[in-house]
Amino acid sequence: MDKYSHYFFDLDGTLLHGGMLLPGAKELVDALCANGKHVYFLTNHPVRSRKVLSADLQKLGLEITYNQLLTPVMGLIEYVHSNGLASRKLYVAGSNMIREELSELGLHIGDREKGNGPEQIAVVLGMSPDLTYRQLQEALWLLQNGASLILLNEDLLCPNPKGFLIDTGSLARLLDHPRFGHQTVSVGKPSYWMQKALLRVMEGKIDNAVIIGDSLLSDIGIGNALGMDTILVYSGVTTKDQLFGTAHHPTSVYASVQEIYQTIKG
Predict the structure, then answer these.
(1) How far apart are CA 81 and CA 77, in angstroms?
(2) HEC states along 41-56?
(3) Is 102 helix (H, G, I), strand (E, B) or coil?
(4) pTM for the whole thing?
(5) What are phi and psi of 37, to 5 degrees?
(6) Which of 128, 218, 220, 136 minimizes the C-alpha distance to 174?
(7) What are the backbone angles phi and psi of residue 70, rounded to the nearest 5°?
(8) What is the distance, to the nearest Å, from the Cα of residue 162 to the centroid of all Cα atoms in its chain?
(9) Which H/E stretch holds residue 224?
(10) Nearby residues of 244 by Cβ (< 8 Å), 6 or more positions away
């Protein structure tokens, strides 16, 4: 573990569960920072803006800055600028905070009722307590008429103390219907666009970096795609049985970040 200079942590299911830090999370992050390691948080969290999320994590005791967070918004920025779509309006079916963050970053937020045709607008979908039936229906009307669909993440479920929450990937099944013929792209982990966001932070140098997460698809998947070392923890959505037969194999496996901390601590 000590051989790495850069550590990218997933949040929900890895460091957090139900909005609270998991045992060993703060100790591990603090120990890495004290040893001069570069710590980042690479998350598919599609609800809170980076400004709000970093403030909330600080309240929990994590010494984290805004620039240490890589969220699906960063993948979205990579996507729209790489494809010359920065002037296209975005209809956000999801979080009010994400809508505000995108606006602050200079992207244009659109509304179907304000004269934006489907060729001028893309639907951005993300799980959120703010999400309403009306938003989903507005999004579906746009998609039926040719708008494209951007998923903030593809996760089907999000860990929660009560069980699991419906995540963006599950919601996408309501909208992503083949009869409409629209383009669908995901910008969260493990997408090419989130890979670009990570590489931008690392300036392309990933030899001494590792990703730690609980999801075979998003965390181990993005690490494998980039040729990075990965660490899987069993504190979130993945069970031991799921390792067999998967295409996403981690470099190392631990029960939790607490076990990683104990290993570092010796």
Answers:
(1) 6
(2) EECCCCCCCHHHHHHH
(3) helix
(4) 0.91
(5) -80, 155
(6) 136
(7) -115, 110
(8) 21
(9) helix 221-226
(10) none
* H helix intervals, 50-191: 50-59, 72-82, 96-104, 133-144, 168-175
Q: Rounded to whole angstroms, what are the CA distances from 239 to 21, 132, 208, 233, 242?
A: 20, 32, 27, 9, 5
CA distances from 112 to 35, 76, 143, 220 (A): 51, 21, 11, 38
Interstrand relation of 89-93 and 108-109 (parallel, antiparallel or unpaired): parallel
pLDDT tens for each residue of the chain, 266 residues long: 678 999 999 999 999 998 899 999 999 999 999 999 999 999 999 999 999 999 999 999 998 899 999 999 999 999 999 998 888 899 999 999 999 999 999 999 987 655 555 567 899 999 999 999 999 999 999 998 888 999 999 999 888 888 889 999 999 999 987 777 778 999 999 999 999 999 999 888 888 999 999 999 999 999 999 999 999 999 998 998 998 888 889 999 999 999 999 998 87
- Rounded CA gap, 38 and 26, in Å? 15
C-beta separation of 89 from 115 below 8 A: no
**76 CB-contact burial (10 Å; exposed 0-12 / middle 13-18 / buried 19+):** buried
Separation of CA 167 from chain center: 11
Residue bearing tokens 């960063």: 74
Query: What six digits make up the tokens of 240?
Result: 């031991």
Pair of tokens at residue 1: 């573990």
DSSP-derived secondary structure letter, 4: -
